């Protein structure tokens, strides 16, 4: 859907901060499925965690992403997604070899502009929900840089600038400024 815009890229690269800036400017946003799943699993004692059962975690991320897309159809205007379906499908395919990108990536389209946060070691911070190190984030970033174009998406690598300038960059690229 042309009004669904993906913000993706390297973990710890400023996606959530950018998403909040876009929300404060009046845009609809959808928070990262992975963080929501980790929070739910930690609170319930579940095991669908990336460091315990990565495949179960990714399948939950796909299901949540599909539900997020469905809920977003009820919102007017642009909706920004912090990661989502394509990221989860890319990871599932990488881990299991299943053709998840073809299954989900072609059927459920987003705006052709995808915005990626590059690795930014100076701001990377691990936390209770992000337990992997920067090198794992960089490997994921490299995979996404290859997988999104395979699905016909144009990549915009976000410059390492302050959050308001980044928000302006995204909105300008979408013709919304």
From TrEMBL:
Secretion signal span: none
SUPFAM superfamilies: P-loop containing nucleoside triphosphate hydrolases
Protein's name according to its UniProt entry: Putative ATPase
Residue ranges of every copy of the NadR/Ttd14 AAA domain listed in the record: 5-166
Species this protein is from: Rhizobium lusitanum
Domain of life: Bacteria
InterPro entries in alphabetical order: NadR/Ttd14_AAA_dom (IPR038727), P-loop_NTPase (IPR027417)
């Amino acid at each position: 859907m042309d009004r669904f815009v993906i913000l993706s890229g390297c973990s710890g690269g400023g996606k959530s901060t950018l998403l909040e800036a876009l929300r404060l400017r009046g845009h609809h946003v959808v928070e990262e499925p992975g963080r929501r799943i980790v929070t739910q699993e930690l609170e319930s004692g579940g095991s669908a965690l990336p460091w315990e059962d990565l495949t179960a975690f990714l399948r939950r991320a796909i299901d949540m992403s599909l539900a997020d897309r469905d809920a977003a159809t009820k919102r007017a205007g642009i909706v920004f997604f912090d990661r989502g379906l394509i990221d989860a499908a890319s990871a599932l395919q990488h881990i299991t070899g299943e053709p998840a990108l073809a299954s989900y990536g072609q059927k459920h389209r987003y705006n052709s502009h995808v915005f990626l946060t590059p690795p930014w070691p100076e701001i990377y911070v691990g936390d209770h929900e992000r337990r992997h190190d920067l090198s794992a984030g960089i490997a994921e970033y490299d995979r996404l840089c290859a997988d999104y174009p395979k699905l016909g998406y144009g990549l915009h690598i976000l410059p390492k600038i302050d959050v308001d300038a980044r928000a302006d960059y995204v909105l300008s690229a979408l013709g919304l400024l």
